[in-house]
Amino acid sequence: MGTGGTIAGTAASSSDGVGYTAAQLRVEDLMAAVPGLAGRQIEAQQVAQLDSKDMDFGTWQVLAQAVQSALDRPEVRGVVVTHGTDTLEETAYFLHRVLAPAKPVVLTAAMRPATALAPDGPQNLFDAVQVVATPGARGVMFAFAGRVHDAVQVRKTHSYRVDAFESVDGALVARVEEGHVRQLSRWPTGVPLGLDQVSAPVARWPWVEIVLNDAGADGSVVRALTAAGVRGIVAAGTGNGTLSARLDVALREAQAQGVRVVRSTRCDAGPVMDLPGLLPTAGALSPVKARVEMILGLLQA
């Protein structure tokens, strides 16, 4: 299933790795560029065609429904989703929480456009198919640069490198080596929320924002969001989810007015500890994944 992204991007010159336009090629074109997929029993479906910085709730709904419909077919082994890297970790976590599939759903992407001198998309796409074809594979994963991450762990940690993603606590699911999948840990599992939980019209999805704790954070953004009707706030705190005194006061005021509040961390890795007297923690979820979790929680409320 194609959704666009850099993997489907093109540029006027093969030497241009940043001035490209994302989401230009269809998923059939991406498959045709991978000789190792010739003759495989693979269906192609274009679910969306966008730069993933523009990913939205409506596309998430359509994608989740399309993936579930495919997985419900007994002859389907699993699903590969091509995606842009910018919001991939959020889409992966969303699919993990909503579907938690018993079959593999493997997202993949690229840091270089399809027209680059050495595009990384074809290898990543081939690897993703190899993961789907692995006996016993299940759950939502991300195949990229020879490594397989689970949806909860994966984060984009570099703006440009072709190995731009990490499993933040080092818990890789597998490696793909010359087309062979070497499993390193258990396939990801979870308890599915189900598509009914996200079937509401997009206009009714709860408004949740991320607020950063940084030098001089005084809580004015929190008060403005609260006055505007925000339903939830994820505080991307410093270190172990720490907050400036004034930001903490503003978040507690928002909480008292019915706004849901959790603390995450702006650090690349590590959980936020749950300590007495502090605002609730998002655990080991990054701010963007904590936002997805809060949105899903508010949809169920």
From TrEMBL:
> Catalytic positions?
T85
Limits of the L-asparaginase N-terminal domain? 2-183
Q: Which UniProt keywords apply?
A: Hydrolase
Domain of life of the source: Bacteria
Q: Where is the Asparaginase/glutaminase C-terminal domain?
A: 208-298
Please give the Gene3D superfamilies that the UniProt record associates with this protein: 3.40.50.40, L-asparaginase, N-terminal domain (3.40.50.1170)
User: What InterPro entries does the database record attribute to this sequence?
Assistant: AsnASE_II, Asp/glu_Ase-like_sf, Asparaginase/glutaminase-like, Asparaginase/glutaminase_AS2, Asparaginase_C, L-asparaginase_C, L-asparaginase_N, L-asparaginase_N_sf
The record's family statement is:
Belongs to the asparaginase 1 family.
What name appears for this protein in its UniProt entry? Asparaginase
- Taxonomic source organism: Pelomonas baiyunensis
